[in-house]
Amino acid sequence: MVTIFRSGGLNFVIFVDDREPAHVHVMADGQAKINIVGQDGRPELVWAHGFTRADIRKAVRIVEERQKEILSRWRDIHG
């Protein structure tokens, strides 16, 4: 597990043994998995547990704002 950054009280991590599609895990009081590039090209929530709707919106917004950086980190980790 590689923590790629922290923002807004959330930890954004990529697991080294994960598979496509490229995604990031978000951890705090809950957990979420967000595909970095969804069907429409924007980040897409896969699942979330223990997060408020506000936290989910915040996490997706942060992934959208930093999408290129996160995708680059995914490629660095997974080749």
TrEMBL record:
InterPro entries: DUF4160
Pfam families on file: DUF4160
Name assigned to this protein: DUF4160 domain-containing protein
